């Protein structure tokens, strides 16, 4: 029996059940979809009288779930091609000019305080842009880096500090479909991208120990190298406030260390190059609101390793657990997120057992303990 159905054949008012994780659902979903992860859906007491349209990322897992529900006499159908198929079909619903203008105007008006102001504050507070910088704005194809590209365009319009930008897209081995989605979004948002190819996915595909970490290191190296080749002295990455607090807590829970994701860093391997993070103070929820307000549809992750939950990298899994923990704690105490962020600004060395300096030398509280009587 065929349990599959094309999206176009579903009644426009019908509810679609997206069985991906909540974090994947947040990145983007079919407009009429409701999020119920696969395990929860299978455990629910569903009505035999209703029809259920089930969606996953590619249509493979949803087909399995639909079959299992059918065995329980539930009228379940798998949406052919899943979210990616729907995204490919509906990405051109708006004209390029209309989409770009609306996205730009919303940054200046509706999301001025939550996004644009915080972008400029990070640039000023951390001195991220200096006169005559040439910055490679690195675009992965997701919501964060695309929003960052539009923010750089807004800042460039005023040009209070003279600087240049290059919008850089690295293809680490995307599928043709994912590459097309990224380029179409760049065109739709009027972001003139420079694309270059690498074979990173192919090189990390068979790595079992921390593939996400290895991939991230390789990506950064290729970005630095290409940016320097183009005459840039800085690369800009789209890490936001939530990435920062997750990194702080992950360091404590999984690394037994107090550290943070810095707003800027000098490169150790590429002389004269620097990494900056101008989205440092922007909340992820506001980027999501900007994306949804403008009806933008981005890929979540085009990595072959994390295409399914069963293959999720160790580092990605730890980050997801940490994200969920922070979310849970914040429901009980609203100041939790801010406290985590400020914790690395309020370190008192006299209350630390030991710490390492820039040369890697460990200093103990015992070194001058007797002198502090």
Description of the structure:
With 373 residues, the chain is of the alpha/beta class. The protein has 2 domains: 87 residues, Oxidized Rhodanese, domain 1; 219 residues, 3-Layer(aba) Sandwich (Rossmann fold). Helix content is 44%, strand content 14%. The strands form 3 sheets. It has a 6-stranded mixed sheet, sandwiched between helices. Helix 11 packs across helix 13 and helix 11 crosses helix 14. The longest helix has 19 residues.
How is the secondary structure organized here?
Layout lengths: L3 E2 L10 E3 L3 H6 L5 E3 L2 H6 L7 E5 L4 H11 L4 E5 L2 H9 L5 H13 L3 H14 L8 E6 L3 H16 L5 E8 L4 H13 L4 E5 L2 H5 L6 H19 L4 E3 L4 H15 L8 E3 L7 E3 L7 H10 L20 H19 L3 H8 L10 E3 L5 E3 L9
Parallel strand pairs: 1-5, 2-3, 2-4, 4-5, 6-7, 6-9, 7-8, 9-11
Antiparallel strand pairs: 10-11, 12-13
Secondary-structure element order, as H and E? EEHEHEHEHHHEHEHEHHEHEEHHHEE
Which sheet architecture does the biggest sheet show? 6 strands, mixed
Q: Tell me the total number of β-strands.
A: 13
Question: What gyration radius follows from the Cα positions, in whole Å?
Answer: 23 Å
Helix content: 40-55%
**pLDDT averaged residue by residue:** 88
Tally of distinct domains:
2
Task: Kindly summarize this structure in a few lines.
The chain is α/β, with parallel strands linked by helices and 373 residues long. The chain has helices at 22-27, 38-43, 60-70, 82-90, 96-108, 112-125, 143-158, 176-188, 200-204, 211-229, 241-255, 284-293, 314-332, 336-343, and strands at 4-5, 16-18, 33-35, 51-55, 75-79, 134-139, 164-171, 193-197, 234-236, 264-266, 274-276, 354-356, 362-364. Helix 11 (241-255) packs across helix 13.
């Amino acid at each position: 029996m065929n349990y599959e159905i094309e999206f176009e054949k579903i009644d426009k008012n019908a509810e679609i059940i997206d069985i991906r994780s909540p974090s994947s659902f947040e990145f983007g979903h079919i407009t009429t979809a409701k999020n119920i992860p696969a395990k929860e859906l299978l455990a629910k007491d569903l009505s035999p009288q209703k029809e259920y349209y089930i969606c996953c990322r590619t249509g493979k897992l949803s087909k399995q779930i639909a079959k299992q529900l059918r065995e329980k006499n539930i009228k379940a159908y798998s949406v052919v091609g899943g979210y990616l198929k729907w995204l490919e079909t509906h990405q051109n619903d708006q004209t390029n000019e209309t989409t770009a203008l609306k996205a730009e105007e919303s940054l200046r008006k509706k999301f001025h305080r939550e996004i644009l102001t915080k972008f400029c504050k990070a640039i000023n507070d951390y001195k991220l842009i200096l006169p005559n910088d040439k910055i490679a704005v690195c675009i992965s194809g997701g919501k964060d880096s695309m929003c960052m590209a539009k923010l750089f365009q807004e800042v460039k319009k005023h040009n209070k500090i003279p600087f240049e930008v290059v919008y850089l897209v690295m293809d680490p081995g995307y599928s043709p479909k994912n590459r097309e989605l990224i380029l179409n979004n760049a065109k739709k948002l009027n972001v003139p991208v420079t694309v270059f190819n690498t074979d990173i996915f192919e090189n990390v595909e068979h790595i079992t120990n921390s593939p996400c970490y290895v991939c991230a290191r390789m990506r950064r190296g290729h970005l630095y190298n290409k940016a320097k080749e183009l005459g840039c002295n800085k690369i800009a990455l789209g890490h936001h406030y939530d990435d920062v607090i997750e990194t702080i807590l992950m360091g404590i829970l999984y690394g037994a260390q107090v550290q943070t994701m810095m707003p800027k860093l000098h490169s150790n391997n590429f002389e004269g190059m620097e990494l900056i993070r101008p989205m440092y103070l922007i909340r992820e929820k506001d980027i999501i609101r900007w994306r949804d307000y403008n009806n933008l549809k981005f890929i979540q992750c085009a990595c072959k390793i994390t295409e399914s939950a069963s293959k999720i990298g160790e580092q990605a899994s730890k980050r997801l657990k940490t994200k969920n923990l922070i979310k849970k704690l914040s429901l009980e105490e609203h100041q939790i997120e801010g406290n985590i962020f400020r914790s690395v600004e309020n370190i008192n060395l006299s209350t630390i057992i030991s710490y390492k300096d820039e040369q890697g030398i460990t200093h103990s509280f015992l070194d001058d303990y007797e002198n502090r009587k």
